[in-house]
Amino acid sequence: MEEKVNHRPCPPKQHNHEVLGSVRISGCCDNAHNHRFATVSGDAIPCDGSHVHEIKFTTDSCNGHDHEFCGTSGPAIEVGCGRHVHFIKGTTTREDGHKHDFIAATLIENPVCED
What is the structure's pLDDT at 111? Predict the structure, then answer.
């Protein structure tokens, strides 16, 4: 007998995005390094006819330290089939005498959702 899988309907407006990436390299020579991050955005926040998401993360530890970021994504960027992503550009907190810039995009929201 085949097991039934019940899919929850996707909410029309509230959703989250996965966010992952790497910060830009900081330092030089033996101190050059970067960090990786992965998180899930906050819920959609209506903004100027679109919406944005709060993004918070702590990077992985590298060279004995990590960095934090807290900010807001850009508005939705349509990618077809009713799906969208968000652009994020920022700078981490200063730790161990330096900070890191980064540029990232969210992953598509609800990628396996049955509309």
Answer: 66
pLDDT at 6 over 60: no
**For the purposes of burial, counting CB atoms within 10 Å of the CB of 91, is it exposed (0-12), middle (13-18) or buried (19 or more)?**
middle
What's the pTM value of the predicted model, to 2 decimals?
Answer: 0.81
pLDDT band at residue 7 using 50, 70 and 90 as cut-offs: very low
Give the pLDDT score at 9: 44
Q: Is 5 exposed, middle or buried (0-12, 13-18, 19+ CB in 10 A)?
A: exposed
Query: Hey, how many other C-beta atoms are within 10 angstroms of the C-beta on 97?
Result: 9
The pair phi, psi for residue 90, each rounded to 5°, is: -165, -170
Strands (E), the chain: 18-22, 36-40, 44-47, 50-58, 68-72, 76-80, 83-91, 101-105
**How many residues are recorded in the chain?**
115
Q: The tokens of 46 are what?
A: 């209506």
Whether 18 and 38 have beta carbons less than 8 Å apart is answered as: yes
